[in-house]
Prior knowledge:
Elements: H1 14-24, E1 30-31, H2 68-77, E2 90-93, H3 96-107, E3 113-118, H4 124-129, E4 134-142, E5 146-148, E6 160-166, H5 178-191, E7 194-198, E8 223-228, H6 229-232, E9 241-246, H7 249-266, H8 271-283, H9 285-308, E10 313-314, E11 322-326, H10 333-344, E12 346-347, E13 349-350, E14 361-365, H11 370-385
Parallel strand pairs: 1-12, 3-4, 3-6, 6-7, 7-8
Antiparallel strand pairs: 2-9, 4-5, 8-9, 10-11, 11-14, 13-14
The structure holds pyridoxal-5'-phosphate.
Amino acid sequence: MLSDRLPPHIEPNAVSRALAALAARRVEIADLTESNPTRVGLVYPPDLLAPLAEAAGLRYDPCPLGLLSARTAVAADQRRRGADVDPAHVVLTASTSEAYSWLFKLLCNPGDAVLVPQPSYPLFEHLTALEGIRAHPYALEYHGLWSIDVASMAGAPPNTRALLLVTPNNPTGSYVTPAALAEITDLCRRRSWALVVDEVFADYPLEAADPPTDIAARAGVLAFSLAGLSKSVGLPQLKLGWIIAGGPPAVRDAALQGLELVADTFLSVGTPVQLAAPRLLAEGAAVRAAIHERVRRNLSLLRAAAGRNPACDLLRTEGGWSAVIRVPSTRREEQLVIDLLEQERILVHPGYFFDFAREAYVVVSLLPAPHVFGDAVDRLLRFVSR
Ligand SMILES: Cc1ncc(COP(=O)(O)O)c(C=O)c1O
């Protein structure tokens, strides 16, 4: 009765079952998978959401691509990183996830493929399947630094329509290098692929010197940069994301026309958040700074803990909100995660959740409160080193 777009198995996995059993007994755990910035004890300016109550929001005047005032604010915000964006090239969405779904509707026919990084954001599997398209992986490899295996893209199926780039990537924290970006752009030009660049974590560099950002605005091929309030100012609940379209003017403008039709079909972005966008982007800078400080602090706690546990290898984290630790491969990752949960009351993501090519890796969020994080990573690294 249900479509093939849904995964065949949607029952909870063994980790979720172990977690549910602990929750039923009200056992407290240190959750190192927490990626929701509103749940980690950050202090938000108390009147940050006041602009949502503007009386102008009582009037509904739908604009498919978004209110010009909000698109202008998003364009102006890109100047923080030196990008010159025309508000006419900004498309508002309810989230970055929705931006993906709109771009897949714009670019792909059912059955077409898009290239996705591996390891990367696990939601790509569902975002593609729900649009009736296929995700074809290309590899990221670690040799003291993550690099994109551009050669692995050569085997892309003939019906590939777009290449997805996540920079910095989740969870590897790696940015695309200028050299890899030039190669990728050239491949997109030769193969007529659109370039879709997820830059949701671009505001959080950690160990990166001047990485490429705002890629669509500077691209020589049809390209789209994606981001949103959820990461840039730590407000995922407001549901405002955006696409910035770039590339040769004729193809970019045709894409914007297509996106306008998709957007007009759903009109999913609420008016109050659009009216509030200029102030949210300006005043949210304080939240962004607090998140940045948090992830920096936790990364230094993690580095110190890794220094005390040489059997574990903390991989280089150039940016973003997560860190990857290679751990001794003494048991399957799933068992390791369950043992950690049941014996130490610590929850981490296993590497396989992000499709790492090999075991054993664990991924931790750098967002939790430092007193929770510092103690938990110490215990985590000692436990896996035993
Ligand atoms: C790489 C990446 N892209 C997109 C998203 C989704 O962002 P949004 O909340 O705007 O849908 C996430 C969320 O964690 C992410 O990690």
